[in-house]
Design brief:
The complex is a heterodimer. Chain A is mostly helical. Chain A folds into two domains: 114 residues, 2-Layer Sandwich (Potassium Channel Kv1.1, Chain A); 36 residues, no CATH class. Chain A has nine helices and three strands. By secondary structure, chain B is mainly beta. Chain B has a single domain, classed as 6 Propeller (Neuraminidase), CATH 2.120.10. In chain B, 14% of the residues lie in helices and 35% in strands. Chain B is built from seven helices and 29 strands. In chain B, a hairpin with a 4-residue loop joins β14 and β15. The chains are: A mainly alpha, B mainly beta. Chains A and B meet through α6, α7, α8 and α9 of A and α1, α2, α3, α4 and α5 of B.
């Protein structure tokens, strides 16, 4: 949209309201239509309670991740998008490496966007599901707090689930 | 009306004894499931072909199970993905992030893993292992859309251990349930909310078990000491087993009794009303179907269905004459007051599923039928997905480290649930 002179902008009713989201990690700013941003329950609560200034600072979320979140919100704010279109668009957004996905799920959680939280959680689950459990420990930095005996006992209980795994 | 037809053409009819055709049919919606057993001769060996007719021309696909690379190979590939060039830097960062990862977020991820993967990942750490008993985790599990039901089956070769078929991974699992009696043969007869109800072949003792977690209970003895064959149905009081469940058995003389898990006892609510014709010739090859607290049983003479509403305690009878040219029929699912039937013609090896009220696609979402055909030279399992109209071969059921294919004797469809407790 070409920027119009200030007075004209005010004259043309009803003006689409926009919000500016600012990543506090790298100070990147994003101007988005209000109805797009309001899919975030966190932002909606801020706007509803008049806590939102001209620029809404978003802590702990990088510009790269914020761009993905906004892309998701834009897609889902489009009333003419079919379910199939949305599915394809969602799949594109979450086609990322596991580290980006974890950042994304944290962002979706912070901004309280249920749909994004769900697709991202599912994608993380899909990307780790075929890994040996030792690799999962490594990726997520989880310490093995089993004794070897305990580990063997837990494994024996559901031995059937380990078919094909070391 | 939708009509699906599966047709097996014989090339050289032979007289074969002890052949079996088993139709394991899950219900067409997520809450109903049933298993149908045709235990006499049927499918002849020889060539066969499938014909499918539907309301509109459907595409017919017979697919091999998606050929997944062996897990070891695949995991190596996946492993490399986790070790991208920058991984060494980010691993340190990740250590921190994962530790700060809010609990409900990692529960949301784990709740979305395939069931078998969940059990493997219990080995990650004790915290992941403890999720099975976590209330918040079971809440997360209810948020995840249910997938296809699994099938809990018993094979002829191994009546004391079950074999579970997982249609999403197209894999057989061989769980051990140490609590189940080994001296008796116990058969899976009904399921609800992830629990499977077993009855011993002497029709005396009932057992309830979650085959995934081994949560187990032997039910108290029934008050009626009649050991003739009974039909069994199972319903949930709420959305999950946490609010309890009920089990009903009904005999051909109209005697029936209900077990309530909350009270852990059997009660006899009354006698069969006169609108249900006695004797009640139950069709034992067809398992009861449970939809929204109501159980449906297939009967003959008169042909049709009897239903029992667990909430109101009301019996109803629906007389539904079978198509004359069909020699036998089995319920696969009924919907409300407009019951629909799955019909199997043993003589012609036809299977038809009539979906009376199910023209609304949302009602049939998640439906899966499993059909097993066997003769001396053929032992074929197939599934049919009602919503995608896709036929899939089921891989042979072979024990780990074993080579001989196991033959399915009977079973029940159930919705696997990690947190269902008996």
């Amino acid at each position: 949209m070409a920027s119009a002179p200030e007075n004209e902008k005010n004259a043309s009713a009803p003006e689409k309201k926009t919000l500016t989201l600012k990543s506090m990690i790298n100070n990147e700013e994003f101007v988005v239509d209000e109805h797009v941003a309001l899919q975030s329950v966190t932002i909606k609560n801020m706007v509803d309670s008049d806590c939102a200034g001209d620029v809404i600072p978003v802590p702990t979320i990088s510009g790269e991740i914020l761009a993905l979140v906004i892309e998701y919100c834009k897609n889902h704010a489009n009333p003419s998008a079919s379910e199939d279109d949305l599915k394809k668009a969602d799949a594109g957004i979450v086609a990322k490496d596991i580290y980006t996905l974890i950042d994304l799920v944290l962002a979706a959680n912070f901004l309280d966007i249920k749909g994004l939280l769900e697709v991202t959680s599912q994608k993380i689950a899909d990307s780790i599901k075929d890994l040996p459990h030792q690799d999962v420990r490594e990726i997520f930095g989880v310490e093995n707090d089993y004794t070897p005996e305990e580990e063997a006992a837990v494994r024996a209980e559901h031995d059937w689930a380990f078919e094909g795994f070391p | 009306m939708l009509l699906f037809q599966l047709s097996f053409h014989k090339k050289k009819p032979k007289s074969i004894h002890n052949d079996q055709t088993i139709l394991l049919a899950s219900g067409l919606d997520l809450k109903s499931c049933c298993f149908i057993n045709l235990d006499d001769k049927s499918a002849e060996d020889g060539c066969y072909s499938y014909i499918m007719r539907a309301g509109k021309p459907g595409t017919f696909k017979m697919l091999e199970p998606s050929s997944k690379p062996p897990s070891a190979k695949r995991s190596r590939k996946e492993k490399n993905r986790g070790r991208l060039p920058d991984a060494s830097n980010s691993t340190e960062m990740m250590d921190q992030i994962w530790k700060e990862f809010p609990e409900d977020l990692f529960e949301a991820v784990i709740a979305r893993l395939p069931i078998a993967t969940f059990f493997r990942f219990r080995l990650v750490c004790t915290k992941w292992n403890s999720l099975l008993t976590s209330h918040s985790f079971s809440q997360q599990c209810t948020q995840v859309p249910q997938s296809h039901p699994w099938f809990y089956t018993i094979t002829h070769e191994n009546v004391n251990t079950g074999a579970m078929y997982d249609p999403s991974l197209k894999k057989w699992h061989h769980p051990t349930i140490p609590a189940l009696p080994t001296k008796l043969i116990v058969l899976p007869v009904a399921s609800a909310g992830g629990l499977v109800c077993f009855l011993d072949i002497g029709h005396r003792s009932f057992y309830v078990c979650n085959p995934l977690t081994r949560s187990f209970k032997e039910l108290p003895a029934r008050s009626v000491r009649v050991w003739s064959r009974v039909a069994v149905g199972m319903t949930l009081n709420g959305e999950s087993t946490s609010l309890g469940y009920k089990i009903l058995w009904v005999g051909c003389d109209g005697e029936y009794e209900i077990y309530e898990s909350i009270k852990n006892s059997w009660t006899r609510p009354g006698s069969m009303p006169s609108n249900v014709s006695l004797p009640l010739y139950l069709n034992f090859r067809s398992q009861a179907v449970s939809i929204g607290g109501t159980l449906y049983f297939m009967r003959s003479d008169p042909d049709g269905i009897v239903s029992y509403d667990m909430d109101t305690g009301v019996w109803k009878q629906f007389v539904i004459p079978n198509p004359l040219h069909l020699s036998d029929s089995y319920t696969s699912r009924m919907w409300g007051a407009d019951p629909t039937c799955g019909v199997v013609d043993k003589e012609r090896c036809h299977m038809r599923v009539h979906l009376g009220a199910a023209e609304d696609d949302s009602l049939v979402e998640g439906g899966l039928l499993m059909l097993s055909l066997r003769s001396r030279q053929m032992n074929r399992l197939v599934t049919y997905d009602i919503s995608s109209r896709e036929w899939l071969k089921v891989p042979g059921c072979v024990l780990p480290r074993g080579r001989k294919r196991q033959w399915i004797a009977c079973g029940t469809a159930f919705h696997p649930c990690l947190t269902a407790s008996a």
